C-alpha cells in the first residue's frame, strides 16, 4: 500500500513486540520492531517511521534518553509506553517531547485508536501549515509555520519546539481570544478527550509558557481562566 503508515515499536519484551506487530499489521500499518536503543537507532538511520511506540523501561538507553535523541532532529510523533500508576514517568515523557502516552497493560484496540488520532492530527497540522502565511508575529515572537521555527524578535534567539509544542501554539494562534478548556486542547493536539485527573495538558501548557517566557502570574500571552480553561490574549499579526 502506497499510503501505508510506518510504525516503529521499541520494547524489550518479545511477547509485546510480537503482539503489537501482529495487531497493528492487521490494522493496516507497516510495523517494524526494536528491542533496545541500539536497534532503534540503526533502524532510524535507514528510515524514520511515521510514528514511534517507545517503552520507557529499556536496557541500556531508556525511553527518556531515546526520546531526547529523536527530538534532536525529528518531530515524528512519539507515544510512550509507561507503567500504569507512574504519573511521574508520563510527565517526564511529555516534557522531553513525547506527544502522548499509554499505560501498561493497555487494550490493543485503545492503542490503535490513539495511533489513528495522533496520525490524523499530525496530517491535519501539516496540511494546515501549508496554507499558512509566511510568518506569524505575537508579543515579541515570530513563528514560521512551515519550518516550525520560533524566534524572539528582539534577541533573535531561536526556541526549540517539539511537534506537541508547535501543535499547541498553533491551536492558540488559530483561536485567539477564545476560551479553550482541557478537553478542547486534548482533542486538538491528541485527538482525544483529556482523561480524569490527567496532568499532561497542564505540563504541555507550562512548557509552552516557559518557551514563550510567559510563565509569570501576570501572563500576557496565554491567560488562565480559573476553572474554565485558557485563552490566547496577545495581539497577532501576519506576514504574507
TrEMBL record:
Keywords: DNA-binding, Phosphoprotein, Transcription, Transcription regulation, Two-component regulatory system. InterPro entries: CheY-like_superfamily (IPR011006), OmpR/PhoB-type_DNA-bd (IPR001867), Sig_transdc_resp-reg_C-effctor (IPR016032), Sig_transdc_resp-reg_receiver (IPR001789), WalR-like (IPR039420), WH-like_DNA-bd_sf (IPR036388). Residues 6-119 form the Response regulatory domain. The modification 4-aspartylphosphate is found at residue 55. Residues 133-234 form the OmpR/PhoB-type domain. CDD domains: trans_reg_C (cd00383). Residues 133-234 bind DNA. It comes from the Bacteria. This is Response regulator transcription factor. It comes from Enterovibrio qingdaonensis.
Amino acid at each position: 500500500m502506497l499510503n501505508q503508515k510506518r510504525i516503529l515499536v521499541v520494547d524489550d519484551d518479545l511477547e509485546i513486540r510480537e503482539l503489537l506487530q501482529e495487531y497493528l499489521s492487521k490494522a493496516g500499518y507497516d510495523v517494524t520492531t526494536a528491542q533496545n536503543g541500539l536497534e532503534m537507532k540503526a533502524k532510524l538511520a535507514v528510515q524514520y517511521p511515521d510514528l514511534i511506540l517507545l517503552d520507557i523501561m529499556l536496557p541500556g538507553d531508556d525511553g527518556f534518553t531515546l526520546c531526547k535523541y529523536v527530538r534532536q532532529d525529528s518531530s515524528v510523533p512519539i507515544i510512550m509506553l509507561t507503567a500504569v500508576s507512574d504519573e511521574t514517568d508520563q510527565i517526564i515523557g511529555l516534557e522531553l517531547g513525547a506527544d502522548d502516552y499509554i499505560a501498561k497493560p493497555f487494550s490493543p484496540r485503545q492503542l490503535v485508536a490513539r495511533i489513528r488520532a495522533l496520525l490524523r492530527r499530525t496530517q491535519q497540522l501539516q496540511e494546515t501549515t501549508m496554507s499558512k502565511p509566511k510568518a506569524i508575529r505575537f508579543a515579541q515572537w515570530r513563528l514560521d509555520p512551515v519550518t516550525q521555527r520560533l524566534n524572539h524578535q528582539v534577541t533573535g534567539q531561536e526556541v526549540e519546539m517539539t511537534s506537541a509544542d508547535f501543535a499547541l501554539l498553533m491551536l492558540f494562534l488559530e483561536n485567539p481570544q477564545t476560551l479553550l478548556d482541557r478537553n478542547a486542547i486534548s482533542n486538538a493536539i491528541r485527538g482525544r478527550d483529556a482523561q480524569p485527573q490527567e496532568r499532561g495538558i497542564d505540563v504541555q501548557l507550562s512548557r509552552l509558557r516557559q518557551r514563550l517566557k510567559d510563565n509569570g502570574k501576570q501572563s500576557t500571552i496565554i491567560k488562565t481562566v480559573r476553572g474554565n480553561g485558557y485563552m490566547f490574549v496577545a495581539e497577532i499579526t501576519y506576514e504574507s
